[in-house]
């Protein structure tokens, strides 16, 4: 087999390379897609509700409603001034000794209502 070199074929090939015909230029820097924050935050708040709800309902006093419950005892003080109401600890310990969780506490419960779940 005899290989013939044609000057016209090389000229056509050289002109095509100079003009860029048939060649694809790749972008040297890859570009990332724009991130949409709304679905990510929606997933985070949805997952946060599932993670926080058990903590809000967790029974804090393991001996609640039993004979060994130390929080079942209450102390009340009657001030000497007859115009004042008695002060007792049962307002704070009562929800716990009834088997409640953190959401049932007088001061903490409303604050936990802000959390999802």
Descriptive overview:
The chain is rod-shaped, with a radius of gyration of 39 Å. It has a domain at 52-117. The protein is mainly alpha-helical. It has helices at 7-19, 37-57, 90-97, 108-112; strands at 76-77, 87-88. The mean pLDDT is 78. The longest helix is centred in the middle third of the chain and has 21 residues, at 37-57. The protein has a two-stranded antiparallel ribbon with strand order 1-2. It contains four helices and two strands, in the order ααββαα. 40% of the residues lie in helices and 3% in strands.
Q: Could you say which overall geometry the principal axes of the C-alpha atoms support?
A: rod-shaped
Rg for CA atoms? 39 Å
How many E-type strands? 2
- What profile does the largest beta sheet have? 2 strands, antiparallel
Strand portion:
under 5%
Q: Could you give the order of strands across the largest sheet?
A: 1-2
Q: Give the number of helices.
A: 4
Mean pLDDT: 78
Q: Uncertain segments of ≥5 residues (pLDDT<50)? A: none
What percent of residues adopt helix (DSSP H or I)?
Answer: 40-55%
Secondary-structure element pattern, one letter each:
HHEEHH
Structural class: mainly alpha
Distance linking N and C termini:
83 Å
Q: What features would you highlight for this structure?
A:
single chain, 117 residues, mainly alpha, two-stranded antiparallel sheet, 40% helix, 3% strand
Q: What is the topology?
A:
Blueprint (H helix, E strand, L loop, with lengths): L6 H13 L17 H21 L18 E2 L9 E2 L1 H8 L10 H5 L5
Antiparallel strand pairs: 1-2
Short structural description:
This protein has four helices and two strands, in the order H-H-E-E-H-H. It has 117 residues and is mainly alpha-helical.
């Amino acid at each position: 087999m005899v290989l013939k070199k044609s000057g016209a074929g090389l000229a056509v090939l050289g002109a095509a390379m100079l003009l860029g015909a048939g060649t694809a230029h790749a972008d040297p820097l890859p570009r990332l897609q724009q991130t949409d924050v709304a679905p990510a935050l929606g997933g985070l708040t949805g997952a946060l509700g599932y993670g926080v709800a058990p903590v809000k309902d967790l029974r804090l006093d393991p001996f609640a409603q039993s004979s060994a419950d130390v929080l079942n005892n209450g102390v009340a003080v009657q001030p000497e001034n007859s115009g004042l109401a008695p002060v007792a600890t049962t307002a704070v310990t009562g929800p716990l000794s009834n088997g409640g969780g953190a959401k049932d506490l007088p001061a903490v419960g409303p604050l936990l209502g802000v959390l999802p779940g």
